[in-house]
Request: fold
Amino acid sequence: MINRSTEFKASRSSIDELMKNPQINVLWNTEIKEVSGENFVQKVVLYNKENGERKEMDTDGIFVYIGMEPNTSLFKDVLNISEYGYIITDNSMATNIPGVFAAGDIRDKEIRQISTAVGDGTIAGIMAERYISHK
Ligand SMILES: Cc1cc2nc3c(=O)[nH]c(=O)nc-3n(C[C@H](O)[C@H](O)[C@H](O)COP(=O)(O)OP(=O)(O)OC[C@H]3O[C@@H](n4cnc5c(N)ncnc54)[C@H](O)[C@@H]3O)c2cc1C
Reply:
């Protein structure tokens, strides 16, 4: 596991699970600078940000997971979007355009979980139905 910083931001339980797994080796303060191989991945070049050291590591594959980028570019000129790209709504999931609702992870909010997405969806659905009924 290659981490660009000196700490993980995941939940405590996930970090604990990771750290006690003897099959996982965590490389802190490290970036992948190159991926190479013939027909398939065989090597990565690692860069240690702390001491400037570069080294090659043999590997059969890589899985990239860095941050989140909400797919909201389609709406950027019409809906209010937060500085991190999430759609801003009020508590009834209403956006700045009457009749347009946003629900789930795409919305600007604190907690992104299945349960909160389902709750958002329920509210948005009811509010949309009310909006149409009162039109
Ligand atoms: C690695 C990972 C682990 C997670 N683990 C948990 C967990 O253990 N428990 C938990 O509760 N939550 C977990 N979550 C969070 C959870 O997955 C989300 O909160 C939840 O899926 C949000 O649901 P959603 O419907 O808002 O968005 P999504 O599930 O992301 O669904 C959005 C859908 O919209 C589609 N879409 C995107 N753009 C367009 C477009 N332009 N047109 C049409 N369709 C489009 C996408 O393809 C996708 O199918 C995890 C998330 C990740 C990334």
Remarks:
- DSSP finds two helices and three strands in the chain.
